[in-house]
Amino acid sequence: MSVAPSSRPKVLMVSPMPDWDLAPMREAYDLVDLPANGPDGLDTVADITALVTSGGRGADAALIAALPALRLIAVYGVGYDKVDLEAAARHNVAVTNTPDVLTADVADMALALALALARRVVDGDAFARSGAWAKESMPLTASVSGCKVGIVGLGRIGEAIARRFAGFDTEIGYWNRSPKPPSSWRAFPTPAALAAWADILVVAVAGGGDTVGLVDASTIAALGRDGLLVNISRGTTIDEAALIAALESGAIAGAGLDVFLNEPAIDPRFFRLGNVVLSPHQGSATMATRQAMGALVRANLAAHFAGEALPTAVVRRRK
Ligand code: NAP
After folding, report:
1. Average predicted confidence (pLDDT) for the chain
2. Is 57 known to be catalytic?
3. CB of 12 closer than 8 Å to CB of 45
4. Using CA of residue 317, residue 21, residue 286, residue 275, what is the dihedral sign?
5. Are 255 and 231 in contact (CB under 8 A)?
6. For residues 260 and 247, what is the distance between their CA atoms, to the nearest angstrom?
7. Residues of 257-274 as b/e, b for ≥16 C-beta within 10 angstroms?
8. What CATH number labels 10-101+288-315?
9. 139-175, pLDDT tens digit by residue?
């Protein structure tokens, strides 16, 4: 007896999502995991019109080209730097992401890293647990309140970071690609000029080809021996080799990092540094935010299959 093919739409899952998203998605769609050997391992590609991927995984030109019926790439994240936008446009594929819902948590993480770094919270925890406290005092730390905070990339997350730091009576400066309306926040012409002014430099710019190494060796050096660097953007936006060299030599005081090159197999030299706080890309990783991000992915899928306007399109299809 032959079984009729499912009439439910197929959605290709390039990267996993939590069960609370998969359960409702399975009610509406046939979910197909991308095989380890890529699209060649699929039974058929003719009926795959949508795929879901993460910011870290994206969708490259080869994957897009291998799916001739593809109409939607739904990114579970705000950063779409790993999606080949040119290939998507060439094949007339829409791209959606999950903006806004994660802004607050990612901004909170930038503050958490800055505070942990300046006040040596992680070192203090180890100091108390080890019993060292009974024998000596911990070294004094650096203030965050009242310092100068420079933000590279004043987008949604950059602005949210600035607003939070303003609550610590800091001075705010920024560098942004395009001009921003006048405010009490001071605009700088280059990331290096901003770094020379700032005590803490926070990188919140989008990833992608244009921003690779935007925070270069000279910008890192301009931060100076007391300067702290925080990165919640992408590992690519900082010259990581120059950063590690500056941390090893004491050219800057420390770094709080949520993002790296080669995640999760990050450069092991980070593990030997005493002046870093390392976070395994946890910016948006709260229950509430991940649920909101999943809901947005599902809303974009539902709109796509209903032929309605996509709620959060980065790229729309041409008619
Ligand atoms: P957004 O509102 O779109 O802001 C993007 C920022 O990057 C803006 O300042 C924008 O400048 C700038 N930018 C974009 N393309 C650029 C280019 N080619 N050259 C120079 N500057 C450029 O995005 P968002 O929601 O704030 O997110 C920012 C980034 O945070 C994401 O792209 C992602 O990489 C990262 N992120 C990290 C985590 C984490 O878990 N650590 C979570 C979410 C997001 P303009 O104002 O000139 O456009």
Report:
1. 96
2. no
3. no
4. negative
5. yes
6. 15
7. bbbbeeeeebeeebeeee
8. 3.40.50.720
9. 999 999 999 999 999 999 999 999 999 999 999 999 9
Atom of ligand 1 nearest to the CA of 233: 35
Instruction: Please give the average per-residue pLDDT across 62-87, as a whole number.
Output: 97
Q: Of the CATH numbers 3.40.50.720, 3.40.50.11810, 3.30.450.20, 3.40.50.620, which one belongs to the domain with range 103-278?
A: 3.40.50.720
Query: Considering 234, 290, 298, 304, which one is annotated as catalytic?
Result: 234
The answer, yes or no, to whether any atom of ligand 1 lies below 6 A from the CB of 257, is: no
Quote the ligand 1 centre to 204 CA distance (angstroms).
6
- Residue 4 scores a pLDDT above 70: no
263 is catalytic: yes
Q: Which atom of ligand 1 is nearest to the CA of 159?
A: 26
Catalytic residue among 86, 248, 263, 308: 263
User: pLDDT tens digits, residue range 101-112?
Assistant: 999 999 999 999
Q: In the block, which residue shows the tokens 């910016």?
A: 283
Alpha carbons 319 and 309: distance in angstroms, whole number: 12
Catalytic residue among 120, 281, 298, 304: 281
Structure tokens given for 151: 């933000």
Length of the chain, in residues: 319
Element (H, E) at 104: helix 103-118
Task: Examine the residue annotation and report whether 91 is marked as an active-site residue of this protein.
Answer: no
